[in-house]
Amino acid sequence: MRAHSVDKWLPRLIIILIAIFLLGPIVATFIYSISTVWVKTILPSGLTFKWYGVLTADPDFIPSTLRSLILAVAVVLITMLVFLPVIFYANVYNPKLKEKLRYLSILPYSIPGIVLVTGLVQLYGSLPVPKLLILILTISAICLPAFYQSLNNAFMGDDFQGMFEQAQLLGDSKLGAFVRVVLPNIRAGLMVGLLLTFTTAFTEYVITNIFLTGQYETLKIYMYRLMNTNGNAASVLTIIFFIFLGIIAFILIKIVSSQKRSVKE
């Protein structure tokens, strides 16, 4: 009887402790973002939302946000135009290429960011090529594992080769068959891959900061600079980041849940 009661409340206790461990820093950061002064006391001296106004009034906030958006959108477009056709071809027509892609997608995880950016500086630092373009291509390559795995799972469900070829037999072009037949059947996996790619590019810090030597200040670089000058405003920006990532996570959960329901039906 006692062992049964322990088995009942122990998992709940572990979940509660994990939730406190994960949510505690977020709650503390939010309280600090609305505090007037919080130094050497358990609770802040007062509460205010003025730091949110200070952050939005900072002339560097909007430009850094736009730079992050431009970088993320550019990476998403390159991922769509370059990786998507290759992954489709490898999954549908060339299993040997699929195996090579699978091993290639592991490389970004095996190379630390600081090592990668050092090699980029050595190889491309003196070339007459826009460094921003090299940065976009590099981050696109880093996003390959998440994008590949999302689409790889999507391509396992149906006979895409048969659907693709049947659409062409009915008079559709290869591009038309791909857009009208293939894309609608992989839209869930595609959306997951694109959202993960967008989030990775939007929040990238190490390579962008070192390779461009701070000349292209994204939102993440701006946040770290703000920490040295105004901790409260930096906490506001951190909370905004958490909200943004929370929205992305919510969308991903909804997409995966809807995909599971459609498979059951």
Automatic annotation (TrEMBL):
UniProt superkingdom: Bacteria
Positions of transmembrane segments: 12-34, 69-91, 103-125, 131-148, 190-212, 232-256
Primary localization: membrane
Record membrane topology: Multi-pass membrane protein
Gene3D superfamilies noted in UniProt: MetI-like (1.10.3720.10)
Keyword Ribonucleoprotein: no
The entry's keywords: Cell inner membrane, Cell membrane, Membrane, Transmembrane, Transmembrane helix, Transport
Keyword Ligase attributed: no
Annotated InterPro entries: MetI-like (IPR000515), MetI-like_sf (IPR035906)
PANTHER family linked to this entry: INNER MEMBRANE ABC TRANSPORTER PERMEASE PROTEIN YDCV
Name assigned to this protein: ABC transporter permease subunit
